[in-house]
Amino acid sequence: MKQITSASNERIRKVRRLEQAKVRREEGAFLAEGPHLVEEALRAGFPLREVYLRDDCDSELAQEACRMARQAFSLSAGAFRALSQTSTPQGIVAVVEGRAQPFAPEKAQGTLLVALDGVQDPGNVGTVLRTAAAVGACGVLLGPGCADPLGAKAVRASMGAVFKLPLWESADLAANIAALTQAGWHTLCGHLHGKNFFERASFAKAALVIGSEGAGVSAEVARACAGLYRLPMENQTESLNAAVAAGVMLYDLWREQKGGQ
Q: DSSP string covering 42-109, please?
C-alpha cells in the first residue's frame, strides 16, 4: 500500500477535484466517505477505483475495500484531513465509479418512480433518493437544474441510496414525463393548486413529480403531467419542504400499491 504523508500531495489535489460536478462527469466517478457509504458501495458491487485510509484505520471493511480497489493508499492524519470533506473524518474515502444515466421510458421497470424538477438543494435530493429506495421505487429522474445526486452532500444525505436505485438525468423533463404518460404511467405533479392528493384514484403505475424548493414544478412540466395534486395543510401553512412532501406522497403511493397495508 502506497503511503502519503503530505497534505499538499498531488494525488490529494486530484481527488479533491471530484468535488466539482463537471469533473465527476468527466471522470465518471464520485466520492464515498465513511464506513457506511463505502460498505454500501461494496455491497452494491460498484467498482472502487481508489481507497484512501487514515493510517490508524485497519477495520475488516477497510481491508476488504483495499482488496477490491484498483489502488489503495495509507494517509497520515494531516493528509487525510486535507482529503476529507467532513468535519469529523471517519478514516476511509473511496473513489467510486458511477454516473447518472440518460433516461428512456423503457428503463423504468417497476410501478413507482419519482422525478425532480429543479430541486437545487443537495440535501433534499439525497433525502428523496433515500425515501425512493425505501419505498422500492424503480429509479429517480432528475431534470435540468437539480443538484448533482453524486455530490458529497447529496451522497451523504442519501445514506447509501445512490448505490441502490438507478439515477437518470433528463435534458427535457417535460418530454420525458409525456413519454411516461404514453407508456402507461400516471404522472402525478405535486402542485399547490392541484386536487387533494389523498382523494386521488388508484394507479397501477405512478410517477411522482416534485418541483423546486422556491418555484415548484415548472409550468411546462406541470402541463405534461396527467394530474396536479396538493397535500392538504392547516394553520395557513403554504408549503412543505420538497423532500418532506416527496416522502409523504411516495409513502402513500407505496401503501396504496401494497393494497393499503
A: HHHTPPEEEEEEETT---HHHHHHHHHSSEEEEE-HHHHHHH--SSS--SEEEEEE---EE--GGG--
